[in-house]
């Protein structure tokens, strides 16, 4: 069986493809509020399901009012917040709830990560991005990045234009560089960073431990290089790449292309995992890990254990939450690969 390499791929997306690609990734394509399983020890989770469902209902009702006779006279306007912010640590199901909100809301609607949104604005131009997105009833933004002031201001301006045009916005967020919380991002920080939009956002808390590892075993240990090669040969659609070579290749691509890089891939094999050389390498790999997780692609790795990807110095810094989330997601994907291997025996 021929094994391919991610480092041989240089994907690209046209502006039109960037717009049509604004849908939940495969892992969250089938999620709904009914498939979210609240932790019985965390009442905020069940409450979050109700609040998100109510927000989706408001989006639907606003669409009906605009299309109905009351819209002719300007009556029946929704006076509630146009935005919804899901506040909580990693692994509590915020993306599940965000995607469920998107699925529940009527079309037209768009769903993307913050990186995909900024890339869209860059590709289309600000005015054209506003024009196209203003046609939607809901924009869902996962992983709203607050560690780049320029991008934050750009998207804040974009959201202001969209909400004034009647578009509802739902979002989750990542942490600021100087926030050292174990896994939380404070809603106050999000609202402060989006400045003039803060009054337009309602906050929904989602508390609890990382569900990906609740009552489950740790990730399987690294495999040998020989075992890695054998696994790749055994599974159709596998890729094999040296860790250092892949990290170098990721530096040549905009992070918005990482998802397309994985098209047609059933299992990713990484040879020679070791601690990331510097923070820029580490953050690119975090973005890559997110796209792997979005697509539910199992990961087989040789070299050092996955938690060793990020040094103690990195974990003590401002991007701690991102690194911990990446380890959590990669661990889940390595566990998935182990289950596939067990079925094959």
From TrEMBL:
MF-aspect GO terms: ATP binding; ATP hydrolysis activity
Keywords on record: ATP-binding, Cell cycle, Cell division, Nucleotide-binding
SUPFAM superfamilies named among the record's database cross-references: P-loop containing nucleoside triphosphate hydrolases (SSF52540)
Keyword Nucleotide-binding tagged: yes
InterPro entries: ATPase_AFG1-like, P-loop_NTPase
GO biological process: cell division
GO cellular component, one term: cytoplasm
NCBIfam families for this protein: ZapE
The protein's name in its UniProt record: Cell division protein ZapE
Origin species: Amycolatopsis antarctica
Organism taxonomic ancestry: Bacteria, Bacillati, Actinomycetota, Actinomycetes, Pseudonocardiales
């Amino acid at each position: 069986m021929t094994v391919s390499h991610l480092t041989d791929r240089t994907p690209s997306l046209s502006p039109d493809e960037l717009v049509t690609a604004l849908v939940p990734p495969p892992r969250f394509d089938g999620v709904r509020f009914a498939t979210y399983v609240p932790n019985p020890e965390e009442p905020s989770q069940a409450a979050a399901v109700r609040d998100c469902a109510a927000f989706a209902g408001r989006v639907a009702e606003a669409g009906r009012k605009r299309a109905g006779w009351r819209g002719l006279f300007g009556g029946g306007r929704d006076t509630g917040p146009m935005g919804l912010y899901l506040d909580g640590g990693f692994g509590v199901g915020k993306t599940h709830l965000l995607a469920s909100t998107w699925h529940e809301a009527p079309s037209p609607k768009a769903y993307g990560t913050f990186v995909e949104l900024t890339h869209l604005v860059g590709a289309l131009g600000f005015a054209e991005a506003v024009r196209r997105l203003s046609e939607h009833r809901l924009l869902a933004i996962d992983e709203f990045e607050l560690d780049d002031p320029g991008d934050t201001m750009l998207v804040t301006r974009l959201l202001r234009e969209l909400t004034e045009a009647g578009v509802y916005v739902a979002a989750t967020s990542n942490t600021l560089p100087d926030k050292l919380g174990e896994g939380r991002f404070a809603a106050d920080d999000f609202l402060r960073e989006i400045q003039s939009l803060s009054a337009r956002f309602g906050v929904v808390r989602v508390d609890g431990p990382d569900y990906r590892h609740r009552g489950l075993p740790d990730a399987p240990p690294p495999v040998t290089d020989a075992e890695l090669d054998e696994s790749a040969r055994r599974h159709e659609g596998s890729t094999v790449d040296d860790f250092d070579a892949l990290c170098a290749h990721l530096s040549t691509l905009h992070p918005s292309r990482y998802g397309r890089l994985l098209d047609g891939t059933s299992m990713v094999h990484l040879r020679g995992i070791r601690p990331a050389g510097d923070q820029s390498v580490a953050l690119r790999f975090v973005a890559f890990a997110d796209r792997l997780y979005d697509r539910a692609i199992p990961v087989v790795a040789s070299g050092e254990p996955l938690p060793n990807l990020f040094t103690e110095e990195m974990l003590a810094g401002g991007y701690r939450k991102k690194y911990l989330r990446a380890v959590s997601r990669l661990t889940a994907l390595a566990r998935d690969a182990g289950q596939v291997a067990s079925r094959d025996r």
